[in-house]
Amino acid sequence: MSDHPSLGHYRFDESKGLLYHDSKPMCKELPRAERLVLHWLFQSEGEAVNFQQLRCDESGETVISKSAVVKAVFSLRQFIGDKDHSHIQAVPGTGYRLVLTSAGDHLPAQSPDQNAELLSPIVFWGIAIVGLLGFWIALHYPIFFESPHATTTIQFESVARAQSGTDVSLIQVARTEQLLKTSDPYVQSLATQIGQCADISWSHIYLSLSFDGMLLAITFASDEGVPPRNFKINDFGLSPRFIDETWLREVKACD
C-alpha cells in the first residue's frame, strides 16, 4: 500500500489519520473506527473483508463494535460524496469491499498543443464575456449559499422506543446544519413508527440526506450479528416525503 493511497478523488494519510481531497481544500480528521476500516479495506483491496477483521486493530485485538464499523462506513461514504462512495461496497452477510477505479478508466491528459488548438479566439472571447458578466452579477446581486464541499460531517442522535421497551438510536449524518434540520421530519416519522412496533432487533438507524435533498439514505444496524440493511430512496417532488407512516412495516423492519 502506497503512503497516501487514493479513494476516488481522495487520499488516505494513515499516519496522520486524515482523508483529504486531491485538489480541493477538503479534509476529514478520521476517528479510530474510520481509520481502522480504511486500513483493512486498503490492505485487502478488491477482496471482501469480514466484520470481525474490520473490528480489530493491527495486533488482532477486537477494539470496536460491529455497529461502529457500519457507522464508520456510513460516515465515510457521506464525506466522500456521490461520485466516490460506490468504491466502498457492502458484501451481504460478510462485511465490505474496496473497489477502486483503474487508471485505464480515466481519459488521457491532453498536451498543451492540443489544448491550444481547442481554444479558438471565438471560444476565448465567449468565455471572457461570460466571466465578466458573472463577475458583474456577483458584485451587484450577491447570492449566499451553503457549499456542498463542507469539510466536516455533523451528527445528531436521538432515541426511539418499541412497545417491548427496546431502544433504537436514530443517528442523522449531514454536511450542513440545514440538511440536518431538513431531515428532522423523516427521523420523527421513523420514531413514531418504531413506537408502533411490538419489538425491533435493530439497535442503530442512520439517516443521511443528499445535498440536493432528493435522496435519503437509511442504514439499519444491529449489535447482534445481523447484516446491516441499506436503503436509498429517491423523491424528485417539490416536497419530498421519502417515507410514509407505513414504510417501516413495508420493509419488514419490525419484529
From TrEMBL:
Keywords: DNA-binding, Membrane, Transmembrane, Transmembrane helix
One GO-annotated biological process of the protein: regulation of DNA-templated transcription
A single GO molecular function term of this UniProt record: DNA binding
OmpR/PhoB-type domain: residues covered: 29-98
Pfam families (alphabetical): Trans_reg_C
Transmembrane feature ranges: 118-139
Classification via SUPFAM superfamilies: C-terminal effector domain of the bipartite response regulators
Domain of life per record: Bacteria
Keyword DNA-binding among UniProt keywords: yes
InterPro entries: OmpR/PhoB-type_DNA-bd, Sig_transdc_resp-reg_C-effctor, WH-like_DNA-bd_sf
UniProt-recorded name of the protein: OmpR/PhoB-type domain-containing protein
The species this protein was found in: Paraferrimonas sedimenticola
Taxonomic lineage of the native organism: Bacteria, Pseudomonadati, Pseudomonadota, Gammaproteobacteria, Alteromonadales
